[in-house]
Amino acid sequence: MSEMTESDLSTDSYKHGSSGEGSFKKRLGIIATCVVGGSLVALYAVTGPFVAPALRKVCLPFVPATGTQLENVFSVLKGRSGSLVDIGSGDGRIVIAAAKRGFKAVGFELNPWLVWYSRYKAWREGVHHTTSFYISDLWKVRTGQFFRVHQRGHLWGTSNDGAA
Asked: Which parts of this chain are annotated as the region Disordered (predicted)?
């Protein structure tokens, strides 16, 4: 019979995986690395589109409307109906709330990710038939057809429906 050297034995045991403890730790390390790496990629994919606009030359950060701001907008619109446009609609909170109160509401937003999220949110809330969201720049929006125009803290009305 042939003699086996010490290096042959260690190579043989490595090939057959007889060192159970070492291979288990190695697999566990690979799995942990994949889970952590995958989680970081998913986190970046979800948060990246919301953070990216802040990295532009002209910073346009997304700041969601608060409950108080929503109350203020609808206290001014109390007893009125018609159409409303929100310029810089963000995640669509004001547009969706207006649609729930009977308005035909439209949102214009520069960030396409927020527009897609707004459309999804309107669909989920069941108001997607009375809302519309468009990717557009503030300076390129034509608001002549709307009775109420909202832009981050400012509400403008026209006398088209008899209520200014």
From this structure: 1-21
